[in-house]
Request: fold
Amino acid sequence: MSMQLLSDLRASINETEDAVLQKARKALSLSKDTACFVYRRSLDTRKDKFSFVYTVAIETDLQNSRLRPFPTYELPTPTGRSKTVPIIGFGPAGMFCAWILARCGYKPIVIERGRPIKQRVNDVNTFWSGGELNPESNVQFGEGGAGTFSDGKLTTRINDPRCRKVLELFVHFGAPKEILTLAKPHIGTDMLRSVVTNLREDVIRMGGEVRFETKLTDLTIQNGSLRQIILNGEPMDTDLAVLAIGNGAVDTYRMLLEQPIVMEPKPFSIGFRTEHSQDALNRRTYGSFYGNPNLGAADYLFSNVTDKRTGEAVYSFCMCPGGQVVNASSLPNRLTTNGMSQYARNGENANAAILASVHPSSIEEGLELQSTVERNAWNAARGLGPASTGYAFLRKEAPDLATCPIRATFGPGIAPTEIGALFPDSVANRLRDGYALFQKRILGDEPSLLTAPETRTSAPLRILRDPETLQSISVRGLYPCGEGAGYAGGIMSSAVDGIRIAEQIIRNES
Ligand SMILES: Cc1cc2nc3c(=O)[nH]c(=O)nc-3n(C[C@H](O)[C@H](O)[C@H](O)COP(=O)(O)OP(=O)(O)OC[C@H]3O[C@@H](n4cnc5c(N)ncnc54)[C@H](O)[C@@H]3O)c2cc1C
Reply:
């Protein structure tokens, strides 16, 4: 008997899972003992349709147009080979690549410039309380990568059977089981930290190695093949390395640009974080269902085409219900923001990035744009978060933060700033047009507090790789991987790309 999926089963907010499973069996005229379980649950908040929508996995060989096959994915089988594979970066891409390789008998050596979670958390808290930035241990760099201080959203737009395996591994390493079924799984920064540590310990238990405070500083490439990686200035001979450096390592990007590695510019987005009342959002989203314990903190997705000529959109990104806005800088005298939350998502503010896409004509132009906006922000507020009220931003007025009812969550504090001036005029104008509509559609009359800028949304470049071998098209043995190489956007897709690269290394090496 095979497992199949039955989608689009609607149930009221208060209906039990058992009742839903019974409904699924009945819909297919199967006996009440047929094995089944909830595969996915999402919430439809449209007024006339307010309900949970379920997909149920059910054991049956029935041929029925409402059924589709259960997606399966088998981990690669151990090969018995013990080859050493250096992996640069211990974010989601590097973590999952290392775990698969270790499980298959390889010896991954993870090279991570930042520090382990415990020390990293101290470094970040010091910085957020007004202390010095540690340029090697911060929100971008260190164990777990950029996502460690995050909302821990595990949603993705990619449709890949490896996604479920990533969720299962998250659960295996300590995440709550519910992430297997929720359409918008999230675990918060608190749970993510222990998952990351447990995964690292398993990699080491299986024979891998993780070297913190070790930075890839250069590469030796001869005749189109990788020969050495240079770590903290010391050469290590290798004909193989996975480059999973994330999108925050500007110095590493600049080092790669000096090498014969073929890359192309990639569009990315810049903007700011908006914060507003979570309670007001819950009321507006849930209407008469407000306060129902089966509903968590409400979220939203906003998108609006502001430039009819190019079709460019202003959109919300990485919405963090009940979260906080964080200082995500990794360079001295530069400032960039992001958002994170705890598993409970019980903070008083909701926040989200509001972004406009940009299309630099070269990689240099993209890096320079990010750097200029981050420098403008630092200079405008001297290390505090440049902030405005939503209304002042729309009217191009000097903001009066003292009268803003939204309490800032950004550490070490905010400073009133005309945030539009941080961006090129064309970007500021698009952000204003978009935010006017966001205010109307999402916030209504609710006040908001804006902290700028958000610049590290995705990589400004792509390192081209061969579609068959997944190696760099110009350097044999070099495997660009994850978000920093331009092949993922977010925790889940980066983890999936890490798995894909590990599978390919196993294939190429056998
Ligand atoms: C505050 C914040 C919140 C976020 N929230 C979410 C969210 O809720 N959901 C989501 O899907 N995504 C979120 N993201 C994005 C997500 O974190 C990234 O998409 C994801 O981490 C990318 O994974 P990666 O492994 O490709 O790179 P990264 O996670 O960036 O990891 C790269 C690692 O490489 C290391 N490194 C870089 N250069 C070198 C070098 N030269 N030598 C050695 N090591 C190096 C870095 O220190 C880093 O640890 C968030 C990001 C931030 C900053």
Remarks:
- Residues 159 and 493 are 9 Å apart (CA to CA).
- The two ends are 34 Å apart (CA to CA).
- The first strand starts at residue 3 and ends at 11.
